[in-house]
Amino acid sequence: SIMAGLSLAAVVYWLAARLARKPVQPKIIFGLARGAAVVGLGYLALKLGEVIVSGDIGLALAPTRFAALWWTEMLVFVALPAVLILVSGRKSLQRTGIALMLILLGVLMNRFDATMFAQLLPSGASYFPHLIEWLTTAGILAAAALAWILGVRLLNIMEDDPPHHAGSE
User: pLDDT digits over 12-58, tens only?
Assistant: First the structure.
């Protein structure tokens, strides 16, 4: 998702800067985080709208495990990070980092909701992701991180000296 991509990009940028011992440019992290928060609010509006329009609001409000998982995802891993970022995001890298990690955990929770927690299995059956599923997920995350790191290096995002503009001297 776009929200996850923006969040992961900010986290990987921060990690890459730290590992390369380069200064972190807060405006990059804050900009990516703001984008993730805005997309997250759009996602939240679409999900709520879908539940209402489809007539499933009763299911969302029912005291069930599935409803609890859905509301946890929407409130803790979408709404809360958006508020943390948009209300005080330009003041604290630490708070923004926590919000970005919440978004990434929410995406992970969403995947598990759909593939593991919310499956209706026959009585006596159980499911646990196969090693291949775990490795595929790790591979996708590693490929995304590699793409970001290569982009940072090849596009020289973490410059040692800020560029000098004509007429500024």
Answer: 888 888 887 888 888 889 999 999 999 999 999 999 999 999 998 99
Label residue 23 left, alpha or beta by phi (over 0 means left) and psi (-120 to 50 means alpha): beta
CA triple 17-106-122, angle to 5 deg: 140
> How many CB atoms neighbour CB 166 within 10 A?
5
- 0.85 exceeded by pTM: no
As a whole number of angstroms, the distance between CA 126 and CA 71 comes to: 24
Torsion sign across C-alpha atoms 156, 85, 41, 141: positive
Side chain identity at residue 85, one-letter code: I
CA distance from start to end of the chain: 43
Cα–Cα dist 133/76, whole Å: 26
Cα angle for residues 103, 109, 112 (degrees, 5° grid):
150
- Domain segments of the chain as ranges: 2-154
